[in-house]
Amino acid sequence: MSLHYALSSSIKPIKPIELPMARTQKTGERWESFTQWLSDDLRELFAGLRSVDPLGVEEIRLRIGQPLLLKAFQQEIFLDSNGEQTSQDKAYLIKQGDLIETLERMTNSSLYAVNEELKQGFLTLPGGHRVGVVGEAIMQGEDLQTIKHISALNFRLAREIKGRALEVLPWLMEPSGLIKHTLVLSAPRAGKTTFLRDLICLLSEGVPKLGLSGQTVGVVDERGELAGMWQGIATFNLGPRTDVLDSCPKARGIGMLVRAMAPDVIAVDELGHADDVLAVADALRTGVKILGTAHAESLEEACRRPTLKILFEQRVFERVVVLSRKRGPGTVVGVFDPTTGRDLRS
Fold first, then answer.
1. Tell me: the pLDDT tens digits for 244-256?
2. DSSP per-residue string spanning 280-301
3. Which positions ≥6 away from 118 have C-beta within 8 Å?
4. Which of the two ends of the chain, N or C, has the fewest CB atoms closer than 10 A to its terminal CB?
5. 0.85 surpassed by pTM
6. What distance in Å separates the CA atoms of residue 329 and residue 225, rounded to the nearest whole number?
């Protein structure tokens, strides 16, 4: 599918940009990791940005004909053409050309190459950034074939916050020093992927002061957000004993890692499909520990979800960590024993 079809416009092909392998969360590097994909006008705008801390930005919304909008914790920010904060009525208006150029860069001028991702409504960029895509859905029966006439993009910016999982790690460990089967719950944008990434790194590196030796961790990174892989190299540090299977469905990848890499721990993001449950059950028979995340604001809500309910009924998970945005993404609400519902920290 051409971008002419996707946006009903034409543009000369743009040469792909060389990617830097940023591994830190320094301000300039974080900006560059996603602004390199934007249109020339937007890149110039962000180059002049002085009044906003990039490390606090969670989303960037590009809607044709609407103001450029940044979202930070409990704050919306509008920017003018010079990159200065302004009111909504004076903000830079996103042009169709901005979306065309941005899509050209993200897809190397071909939406065909990313059509499978488009069917899920998003693209994943190096660094773990996810770009939501909306427009006109093209259906064949009940199956979504693609999206054309793309009208808006939402950059959800990945971040690396170290140490957040360390505060709850003692409640997640066996007396022997092994990790318990653990599920991390939160609403969208409340930090569960960031938390899981931190936990994976701690397990892989080991925490001697807690009696935790380094463990082999297998990661099924279906959406490319945990490791942010690019050409086989992770842009997030998941530790020295971590093996990543990138862009593979969880249901298939769990079994592949168990057979091929003999992990002590399997980590997956966003459990929820029936096939995921079957794959987790198969992995448990090998003695591997399971770390996962799921969408839910509480343990009670998770127990009502049909697929998760099966896992709880089978008593797969021994610990449940619930996160919120109360004091920013990754705020720990509680560490629960799912058999009793008790918060172990109280």
1. 999 899 999 999 9
2. HHHHHTTT-EEEEEEE-SSHHH
3. 111, 133, 146, 147
4. C
5. no
6. 16
